[in-house]
Amino acid sequence: xxxxxxxxxxxxxxxxxxxxxxxQLADALARAIEVGLLPPGTRLPAERELARKLALSRTxxxxxxxxxxxxxxxxxxxxxxxxxVARRPGLFPPAPTPAEETDTERPTRIGRAAGDPGSIGLxxxxxxxxxxxxxxxxxxxxxxxxxxxAAALRDDVPALLGELGYDPFGMPRLRAAIADHLARRGxxxxxxxxxxxxxxxxxxxxxxxxxGGPGSAVVLENPTYIGAIDAFRTTGNRLLPMPVDPxxxxxxxxxxxxxxxxxxLAYVVPTFHNPTGATMPEERRRELVRAAAEYGFQVxxxxxxxxxxxxxxxxxxxxxxxxDRVITIGSLSKIAWGGLRIGWIRAPRADIxxxxxxxxxxxxxxxxxxxxxxxxxxxxxxEVAAWSMAxxxxxxxxVIDALAAQLPDWSWETPRGGLALWVxxxxxxxxxxxxxxxxxxxxxxxxxxxxxxxxxxxxxxxxFGADPDRLREGVDRLAAxxxxxxxxxxxxxxxxxxxx
Length: 500
Description:
Blueprint: H1 4-11, H2 21-34, H3 47-54, H4 58-70, E1 74-77, E2 81-84, E3 108-109, E4 122-123, E5 132-133, H5 143-160, H6 172-184, E6 194-197, H7 199-211, E7 217-222, H8 226-234, E8 238-245, E9 248-249, H9 251-260, E10 265-268, H10 282-295, E11 298-302, E12 326-331, H11 333-337, E13 343-346, H12 349-362, H13 368-379, H14 381-406, E14 420-424, H15 430-439, E15 442-443, E16 445-446, E17 459-463, H16 468-483
Parallel strand pairs: 5-15, 7-8, 7-10, 10-11, 11-12
Antiparallel strand pairs: 1-2, 3-4, 6-13, 8-9, 12-13, 14-17, 16-17
């Protein structure tokens, strides 16, 4: 749960309008839910406790919680308190203060923000579609992917129409192709160890729910992939943050955490880490495998951001594992195209059976058509990955050059791969700034979204998968927002510890 003090720090200055206090408080809490600072499953403070902290009547708190319940954002149950159950952007759009609003740029109130679930609900244009989303770390399909789609539709689909399409493990030929792909990376794999999933996000969720679960201790990098935090938290796992340095996750901390209490899983993004871009050296990968063997936990390595195919990067962590301690997640979303929604899990066969048992509750199988396309892509994976790496590098340069020219006081480490920058903001509150940026028509992720304990309020994540012209315009809008970010509205740096 989040404490009353932590919640007050999180929402900052909220009572600055003429509306009733219960409505203003509900608005502030809704905005925190919108951007993910109060993720699904988070228990809110008891009404009496929050009333004491805010010096308000309990009636005011009850009324505010009632508004959130009516909006479907929280649910209350006797004995369990009030918990966040959904993230619905734009339900309670904030009223701009006079200092934030000018005659030439008046933010538009909307009922629901378009495009991205982490958006704030206010955009700097009358058309919500005009907002530039610097939140999606993925590229459009390249020319080779287009050729694979055409070939599969022409040559493969007619034969597939005679099949039923209900294989929860995935198409055997695609599983064999992925096993071969991993073997070339140094990870000997049998096709029976592969489960095809609907993207990497489903893979992470299946691992979190079937191999972890309520009460399980899971070590997560801090910061880490936002979708992993959501998956592990909403399935009831207990999150243990592990710091990240320029060489990736501090695996010595993972050992210390596991020595102090039983740990079930440790989730890491070892190559082109999301969001920092760091790549874990080989020795640190070996060290993590040794810690897993010593303390009895499993490592979940997510290779989704890695389109290098091993060129200039260490082998996957599973290459150093001789004891079935490493589960590997991969995807074609960054290498090829996110629209395919093809991911996979490599795991010991006993774990694959457990994962499939959980998978068929949600869906019976992945599309045969997209699997047929994915098989074509795997046959030309070198060409596909080369285009993606070159395109990502070009767009990374566009963003970095624009930031360096317009926002030279911001700081970042230039990654060698991936599709995101982890940017430090000097003397700023990233949550407040991201709200202001949204009013200028550009959406970015504030740092606490990528943190298991709500830290990094001085960072934002900038994804650069968009077209170069949109990227340049996005940085222009960020620069305009930064110029409007007056010191008087900065709430300072605070950290929020959230446990579920």
